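Box 3.1. Reading complex inputs
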Amino acid sequence: MPAAERRAMILDAARDLFGRQGYHGTTTDQIAKAAGISQPYVVRMFGAKETLFLEVLDATLATLVDAWRGTLDGLPSGADEHERARAIGEQFVDLAATRGLHTMLLQAFVSGAEPAIGRAAREGFLGIYRFLRDEAGIPDEQVQGFLGSGMIFSVMLAIDMPARFDDDEDAAALLRATFGEKCMQVVALARAAA
Amino acid sequence: MPAAERRAMILDAARDLFGRQGYHGTTTDQIAKAAGISQPYVVRMFGAKETLFLEVLDATLATLVDAWRGTLDGLPSGADEHERARAIGEQFVDLAATRGLHTMLLQAFVSGAEPAIGRAAREGFLGIYRFLRDEAGIPDEQVQGFLGSGMIFSVMLAIDMPARFDDDEDAAALLRATFGEKCMQVVALARAAA
DNA sequence: GTCTATACGGCGATAGAC
DNA sequence: GTCTATCGCCGTATAGAC
């Protein structure tokens, strides 16, 4: 198999595993097994586990921003900032289909104790902010609400709250409170991705 | 030293370290050194690293909820839901003085791959929701905004964004966008805690 | 391009003394 | 209540063959 294709497979498997278990909680052997190759080959291909994590982070951010660009391009040119925010907000939720995307970002944000990861995570967050401000044209007053709802969605995925919707009354109430009318849709999407 | 006091010291040291480095990224030896005792004694006292993490999580949630109760008690009895939300929101930021509190919670939320931690994290999140709803009387419509801004604050601490306020224009813009008027105060608090 | 074998360090946990 | 010594496992990384 050509190296480029192999890399993509490894990056996909690694995003899912790093997203669920974090940087230190994931072994290169788990990633290798998920990608169907040997552990030393994973290390050989990326040099070190940390480099792999950083490449996964870059790829994940690129996937997110590319998807948002596509969403904005598909919008009628007269769309105002609320419509744009709503559209990319929905796209963010839909990206749950890309397994591990949201949790991978969250894991990067909490792995700042590794200096290189901390730098990349900070820079990645700033890249998202710049995109919202400069490309999506979201005014600063709306940024907090947008980022906040994205964070809540990501954390809900991380703690697998949507799985408890049917069994736990409070879980259902919380999901309704945080996602409002879109609750059922979000829960369905999250479950399909899990 | 009496066991109870020793426990409290270990729990404090562990909260800080787990908060910065996560469950898998923190060793029982680091915690022992921070608490000034030997590594086997840490394990002996809590049985296992996982038990220690779960106890730290419980203690951290208790600290948060107790602080919030105190805040609500100090409010004039006529305070409406917006005043109550504002008061406990400020208290949440002030709790940055309790080193590692916010990041510890975040770390618990992303460590759900360990079954016992996942359960405790989910239950902890629900406990926070119940407190907001039943004790603080925050209506469901306000819950998303409240939780969202709390998440953003916690993530900003985790990636050490406040430290970049002076040097990075975009970091400053992001912090202003997410914290508004309270930005300077929040940045100062976050830095004092770091 | 991919594997097997393996070195090496580190970590959680146990044993047992004081 | 607290320590030292230590076991055994696991994880990353390297060497080197095919």
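In summary: Chain A has ten helices and no strands.
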